[in-house]
Design brief:
There is one protein chain. With 327 residues, the protein is an alpha/beta fold. The chain has helices spanning 2-14, 25-28, 61-74, 95-108, 129-137, 192-208, 226-238, 251-260, 272-286, and strands spanning 31-35, 50-55, 79-83, 110-113, 141-147, 160-166, 176-180, 183-186, 213-218, 245-250, 267-270, 293-297, 303-308. α1 packs across α3, α6 packs parallel to α7 and α8 runs parallel beside α9 (272-286). It starts with a helix and ends in a 19-residue tail after the last strand.
Length: 327
């Protein structure tokens, strides 16, 4: 059954259609990239086999990719994987390999990707390969659906909220420098164009998915100009959607409120770093990183990536948590 479901999902993506965000747990630790806005399906070979880009990545990624290939083989899915090994921690990353991956993704228009871990030490390049993939494909909107699983009891049950994060600027702009010895400056970039774009995406999402409220998460009381601009843009966009209730909340209070009463939230929109933190906090409310799906998308470009909502620990590789059952 799971093999058939995976096969149908991937073939549907290959043909240019969207698939439900809520997928089997074992595929959520992967990224699934589907290039869209193309009038025709990508060409199949003479034997009706479609090519799909595969990037195993690090940690649990390679063994999950192996499991996916076994499932697809058992389900007789007409897919041939074009595999690339792109890893910073395993010293298998370069600009040439990155370009090869991007070319393959754009050609095949469907890709499966594991997490590419970023090393802690500085080796002369600030922007990670994960970040460069997002920027080159302009995957500005990260959407994480936090939803309780049937039969999986947690402190808060029947949760259903969505976290939308701008992921191409903010604290993750990769702009750091040592101004004088012992003094490092990290630049947080907030622009009107990208703030309005992510706010509009959040309100459009709420409208299309029957959501009733959008909450902007910020720290404008301290970062008055940067987060102040983000908050101003959200308020401006909110005026264009009178049927959607709009609120704003400070990031630290948001963390507390999510733990105490997450039911008050529906759709949350926020800058980059806050979204990374809130994604992981919210995942813990429904069972952890392995049960929360996500996607990175850019409606104006031909690519959208299905992925795990939060990070899976590297130490899970080779252990039973990396082989969760189908939900």
């Amino acid at each position: 059954m799971m093999a058939a479901a995976l096969g149908r999902s991937l073939v549907t993506l290959v043909k240019g259609a969207s698939v439900p965000l809520w997928q089997p747990v074992s595929t959520r630790a992967l990224s699934l990239t589907a290039c869209r806005n193309v009038p025709e399906a990508p060409p199949a070979r003479a034997d009706s086999t479609f090519k799909v880009t595969m990037v195993p990545g690090d940690g649990v990624g390679p063994e999950l990719m192996t499991a996916v290939k076994e499932v697809f083989k058992a389900g007789d899915v007409p897919v041939e994987f074009e595999e690339f090994h792109l890893s910073e921690v395993q010293h298998m990353a370069s600009e040439e390999k990155l370009d090869q991956v991007l070319t393959s993704m754009k050609t095949n228009r469907v890709a499966m990707k594991g997490k590419i871990h970023t090393p802690m030490e500085f080796k002369g390049e600030l922007a990670s390969y994960e970040m460069r993939l997002r920027r080159k494909l302009d995957l500005f909107a990260n959407v994480v659906h936090v939803k309780s699983l049937p039969g999986y009891s947690t402190r808060h049950n029947n949760l259903d909220l969505v976290i939308i994060r701008e992921q191409t600027e903010g604290e993750y702009s990769s702009l750091e420098h040592e101004s004088v010895t012992g003094v490092v400056e990290c630049l947080k970039i907030i622009t009107r164009v990208k703030s309005r774009r992510i706010a509009k995406f959040a309100f459009d999402y709420a409208t299309k998915n029957g959501r009733s409220k959008v909450t902007a998460v910020h720290k404008a009381n301290i970062m008055k100009l940067g987060d102040g601009l983000f908050l101003q843009c959200c308020a401006e966009i909110a005026e264009l959607y009178p049927k959607i209730k709009y609120e704003n909340i400070i990031i630290d209070n948001c963390c507390m409120q999510l733990v105490q009463n997450p039911y008050q939230f529906d759709v949350l929109v926020m800058p980059n770093l806050y979204g990374n933190i809130i994604d992981n906090l919210a995942a813990g409310l429904v069972g952890g990183a392995g049960v929360v799906p996500g996607r990175a998308t850019a409606p104006s470009t031909p690519c959208s990536r299905r992925e795990r909502g939060t990070r899976l620990p590297k130490q899970w590789a080779g252990t039973s948590p990396t082989r969760p059952p189908c939900c």
